[in-house]
Specification:
By secondary structure, the protein is an alpha/beta fold. It is built from eight helices and eleven strands. It has a single domain (2-302), classed as Rossmann fold.
Length: 314
């Protein structure tokens, strides 16, 4: 593990690829679960890890949570950091950890282009939902996406392209490399975001940093832009979640698509409440909020409103 962390630091320093890397995260575990593959219509063979709770009633439609890793990373790490499996076993939903692009460490290639819905990563996630729906009874009103860092940026891309299939989104320490106005006119998409004020990889107030070719936006301004997209009330409501965490909520949104930001005072580039990433690389960790559980509570309150609840098996 120590060697893996050093490797991750070196990869980040040499800029391979020249976007955000989650320092300390390039570790593949010897006890990793099986990896499945999917060949997409974009002519890519992509990987994913799947967790289905044992003893689940196969006849009952289950929610699906899609959790995406950060740059220079793998699904195994995302599974370990987020601890989604533990909650899935308790609540009875299915979790899938898709892999980004690349032959070694993976990345989500967030590109603009004239047809965002045909971005290879978007095609992969869309067809992954179809693949799982053909194998399991998925509650089509309760498909959710979240991600760490570059995976959080991918969550934003999916909110612009698959908001008719994915009910809500949860970016954590999100590295947003697409323009803040990338999807004007897109349908409202509920979001709950988490970010630390001491995140040196993706500065909370926005900045140009050495690990990315373009400046990152201010997180509060990015969330405010998302609220405008969802046609929420102009003024947010700020409150204290606890002594270390503040909550900013935009209400009155179209289609009930609430927008919420949890700010962790002094928090680094971490998945809060999960398995800590080495603080000497990723910055301060905090258990003052459990991003996975708070996110799941938000997801449960935000199903798709205009879809039937079940994708039947063929």
């Amino acid at each position: 593990m120590r060697r893996a962390r050093v490797l991750a630091s070196v990869l980040a320093c040499i800029g391979v690829p020249p976007v955000l890397a989650v320092a300390g995260a390039a570790a593949r575990y010897a006890s990793a679960p099986p990896t499945y593959t999917l060949t997409t219509s974009a002519h890519q063979t992509r990987e994913y890890i799947l967790h289905v709770p044992s003893g689940r009633d196969a006849s009952k439609p289950a929610p699906l949570v899609i959790s995406m890793h950060g740059a220079m990373n793998w699904p195994e790490f995302q599974m370990d950091v987020t601890q989604w499996n533990r909650l899935a076993d308790d609540q009875g939903f299915i979790v899938v950890y898709p892999a980004g692009e690349g032959g070694g460490p993976k990345i989500w290639e967030l590109r603009g282009g004239s047809n965002p819905s045909r971005m290879p990563d978007v095609v992969f996630i869309s067809e992954l939902i179809d693949t799982l729906a053909a194998r399991y009874t998925i509650d089509r009103a309760r498909v959710y996406a979240n991600g760490l860092s570059n995976g959080g940026g991918m969550s934003f891309a999916l909110s612009c392209t698959l908001a008719d299939r994915i009910a809500a989104f949860g970016p954590v320490s999100s590295a947003v490399t697409l323009p803040i106005d990338w999807c004007p006119g897109a349908r409202p998409a509920p979001v709950v975001a988490f970010h630390g004020t001491a995140d040196n990889f993706v500065p909370y107030d926005g900045a140009k940093v050495w690990i990315a070719p373009e400046p990152f936006p201010s997180i509060p301004e990015w969330i405010a832009a998302w609220a405008r997209r969802n046609r929420c009330a102009t003024a947010p409501i700020d409150s204290a979640f606890n002594a270390e965490v503040t909550r900013r909520a935009y209400g009155g949104c179209a289609d009930g698509a609430d927008v919420v930001l949890y700010t962790v005072k002094g928090g680094g580039h971490q998945w809060y409440g999960g398995t800590p990433i080495s603080a000497w690389m990723a910055g301060p960790y905090s258990r003052s909020i459990d991003a996975t559980r708070v996110m799941w509570d938000f997801f449960q309150r935000h199903p798709l409103r205009d879809k039937s609840r079940q994708i039947p098996n063929p």
